[in-house]
What we know:
Elements: H1 2-6, H2 9-20, H3 24-35, H4 42-67, H5 71-79, H6 81-113, H7 119-132, H8 138-152, H9 157-168, H10 173-187, H11 189-200, H12 202-243
Keywords: Membrane, Transmembrane, Transmembrane helix
Transmembrane segments: 12-34, 46-71, 83-104, 136-157, 177-201
Protein name: Sap-like sulfolipid-1-addressing protein
Amino acid sequence: MDFIDSAPLPAALAVLALIDGLSVGTLLIPLFFLIAPGRVRTGRILAYLVTITGFYLAIGVLFMLGLVNVIDAASDLLASELGQWLLLTVGAGLFVAGLLVWAADSRRKRLAAAGTPLPESGRILRWRARVLDERASGGAVMGVAIAAGLVEIAGMLPYLIGMTMLAGAPLSASARFAYLAGYCVVMVLPALVLLVTRIVAAPLVAAPLERLTAWFQRTGAENTSWILCIIGFLVARTATKSLGIPLPIIG
């Protein structure tokens, strides 16, 4: 949080966007395209990435249009003692939420070991089957992209933090939306880099991509829990510093 607060706006947004680029919607599903047998389905991958980029761009526009008129009031509130206590509460809540996600993921893994199907894995597998079906239309691929965005949007904390930073930045409307567009492009850069690598050096990267996909699918919830805990910890630490609470363990 200290880095995000002190870094230049473009650098802070780039870091947040790259973190967002490691989600199921922006990386795991494109990886399914990349490891599919046969030739690389470049058209489908690009259609998917353009759609999910456009989805987050549209959400960001709506988000900022709804916040720009109240951002000053929100900033004044957060600068107050009450606001700092609210931040401390939010940070603690995010940290606890991360622990709960980790506990739920551990339970799912125990159920999987016992042969019980996992609802979240089932959803991801259905998305995979739909986008890799040879009969799938462009509309189906775009539908999966939008569905992935809708499912993930509430949990993409870096995205929400980035949009709030943009809404409060002293920028013109055109500059604000240009930053937003850049954020959404950077968000899909990891998938684009893997696509180019897959095309240029297919024999060398096919096996590593399969292992990366398996790892990402296996640890997605665990990664989410870490993000929640880390962001919650940093928000709570910032609030305790502002409030002068002597907590050496997070100071």
